[in-house]
Amino acid sequence: MESVLADDGVRLWASRSGTADPLVLCHGGPGLWDMFEDMTALPAPLSDAIRWDQRGCGRSQRCDGPWTTERFVADLEAVRRHFGLGRMTLLGHSWGAQLALSYALAHPGRVRALIYVSGTGIGPDADWHPAYKANFLARLGEAPALLARWRAAPNGSRERALIQWSVEFEDRRRAPEHAERMADPWFGVNTACNAALNAERARDWGTPELYPACRRLETPVLIVDGARDIRPRSAVDSLERALPHVRRVTLEGAGHLPWTEDPEGFRRAVASILRRVRRLR
């Protein structure tokens, strides 16, 4: 385990595994922590990775923010510099996919490749959030007692998170087990961070400037979707159309965490872009 010092003095938890060129992983949330242990337990290239907790979250130093994408991009730059990486391959999941894309747009020369997992595209929230909310409530509504427990649980509590995360998996039988593993260890949801960054996304994401910025991005991008994600995958079409060097892989039997429900399919997809990038060196 290592401590990365951000340029404003906040310390970020980080961990490196493996010996080859590492994937730098950006976890979801916002306001959560690195939950990639299952992913990095898979064979290379996924086992060669740098994991880190975003500021004020998980094992990183508690602080008062600021909770902005610009600040989190600067923190990711501090991670890159701490580990002495010239260019890095970024893998971001969910909110972390948006963060990784934002970093690549800000620092294209420092990103060898971008792996964009279970993101929500570059359009406005209206492209996906109403359908996501409806799908979420419909799936929870299959078990009315569970829906009632979720509504009664305090925001940010472990109980509410476990119920919410269980909806993310297509395999309903194993969903509670997967959610329990996500919550172990439990560090608590940073609700202030979550609220601020979600509000920023709703306000600023989907603006016209994003589309030409993505069209100018020369970085190779792999988009990985779980076909059974309750966030409509059509939301990502806007990003796919804008990127000049993109490949998209959809894993049919997987939900929002595709490496959990189709680990071999996920590993093959990631290995394919890394082989491509190495040929281009």
UniProtKB/TrEMBL annotation:
Sequence similarity: Belongs to the peptidase S33 family.
Organism name: Streptomyces achromogenes
Record protein name field: Proline iminopeptidase
Highest classification ranks of the organism: Bacteria, Bacillati, Actinomycetota, Actinomycetes, Kitasatosporales
Keywords assigned by UniProt, alphabetized: Aminopeptidase, Hydrolase, Protease
Top enzyme class: hydrolase
EC number, UniProt record: 3.4.11.5
Positions of the AB hydrolase-1 domain: 22-258
Cited PANTHER family: AB HYDROLASE-1 DOMAIN-CONTAINING PROTEIN (PTHR43433:SF5), HYDROLASE, ALPHA/BETA FOLD FAMILY PROTEIN (PTHR43433)
GO MF annotation: an example: aminopeptidase activity
